[in-house]
């Protein structure tokens, strides 16, 4: 059936009305003001939120048409301005002054930035609801800008390469996105159109490598002497990403793979576990099992060791959790484990390398071993009878994050997010059969993919 713009406008109005009314109908649901600069105010975690935000964005596209495209093309300036705000310690400077608003001349004293230029940079952020301009060239923190707060003093931040150690990871996440990834995406067209790189899925032939002027993978670059702060920032950034997505709600939830119900002395291997956010959650939910957390030597001896010493030193002391250096491209040393777990790892690698990783686990597994992947499962945006999205929303309900993350994987590692069908094919190529997929609860976008050994 052919629909008109009026049909779509009416439907979007109705979706906005019903979803907003549903949010307001819950008296216990906290909906902080944008002006609220107190810490810990994350997304409004309720089902109608996704419909409301998706309808709002589609409404802007419907009414603005081509101007919407141009605005999106200019969006890189928002990301680059965020990086300036972080490196100029803007949020911390405003906080230390009392948080009610500070003139740009005072804010600029925390760095070498020119006040007139900084005012323009902060204004474009305020136009996108990040900071509030309370008076002419006077800026205050708000609910969106406080994400950038390291919680440290400006004095401690100046000249410190390891800015993000012992922080909640939010500022590290934004810094990672606005430096490493922003530079990389600027070379995306060269990477996908140049004959030398267009058909390659090697992690050394990426937009990131072109931007950095290197011929090695991002992980190898960060492992080089002198780049320790980049690796440390990434580790902390992943803690922030987990917290922003609901505090790892995708790891232990009703209906998912039941870690808490695992038998006593079950052996679980957290492959590529990073700083240990996932294993920390599982160790809390399932104290009866043994966990081996694996990652690269520089990760295990750095952020992983620090995280467990701070968050759960008794698990290490008791032997419940063991930290082990391991390259997951090499044979898996833990044979016949009950569960092999990987969260947000396979999306870092193109199919040939992902198959190699999963094949190492297959070779080590017993017939009864289970493989659990915690990953995003993306859906095509083409019309489908299976779509549960109300007219006129896309099947994704307007959520662009999975698709942005997919391009992030492409630019950084020549890797990808995958559909369910792609996970089936990937698993079978490595000797694993996909048994079930369970979506995590809102606001998480991750799912449990449970495989058995073929």
Automatic annotation (TrEMBL):
InterPro entries for the chain: COMT-like, COMT_C, COMT_dimerisation, SAM-dependent_MTases_sf, WH-like_DNA-bd_sf, WH_DNA-bd_sf
Pfam families per record: Dimerisation (PF08100), Methyltransf_2 (PF00891)
Domain O-methyltransferase C-terminal: 260-432
Domain of life (superkingdom): Eukaryota
Keyword entries, A-Z: Methyltransferase, S-adenosyl-L-methionine, Transferase
Domain O-methyltransferase dimerisation: 77-148
Molecular-function annotations in GO: O-methyltransferase activity; protein dimerization activity
GO BP, sorted A to Z: methylation
Name assigned to this protein: O-methyltransferase
